[in-house]
Amino acid sequence: GAGVSQTPSNKVTEKGKYVELRCDPISGHTALYWYRQSLGQGPEFLIYFQGTGAADDSGLPNDRFFAVRPEGSVSTLKIQRTERGDSAVYLCASSLTGTSYEQFFGPGTRLTVL
Amino acid sequence: GDSVTQMEGPVTLSEEAFLTINCTYTATGYPSLFWYVQYPGEGLQLLLKATKADDKGSNKGFEATYRKETTSFHLEKGSVQVSDSAVYFCALSKTGAQKLVFGQGTRLTINP
Lengths: 114, 112
Fold this sequence. Notes:
The complex is a heterodimer of chains A (114) and B (112). Chain A has 114 residues and is mainly β.
């Protein structure tokens, strides 16, 4: 079956611009997660959705980052006024429920801020 | 806060060698522990997990035992193959908190 998909696979933008990154979870998965992975590091948690609501947004680094999941399926991570330090691979994962142990990861979106 | 520390890479071995990748954690309570693997050009995949002390997770010839007394979850394989070349991540999650906390990853290269 289809796995987690993310678009675009690569995004190059200029400092100060606004970007949106999209995640399509596995059909039927109620839990969705965003992580950020810098070069040579492990993924760092950003936000977790259970259904349409953000159950834990403690990993969002500042108020330039925002994520939505309006219908409980597709999610969009939005970054305003991008900075060079935002350059990273943004990973999305989903799991069947919030208490399921296995998170299924997408291929990621590589964001480069020039 | 909670954290995971992995042995630094890269690790290079010959085919059929014995593999150990060390992982230790710091966390309050009783976390669940995981090893994820990222093959070249692919997304992160769950390799194995253990949810309580003394549990052993195993998959594809890899094993790891949850050692609460040493706060460790070392990954082992008796005989590695070229196809095991990948980046391996140790991770934990806390009961009631679904997010994963990852180590920095260990790049493994197996030479024929």
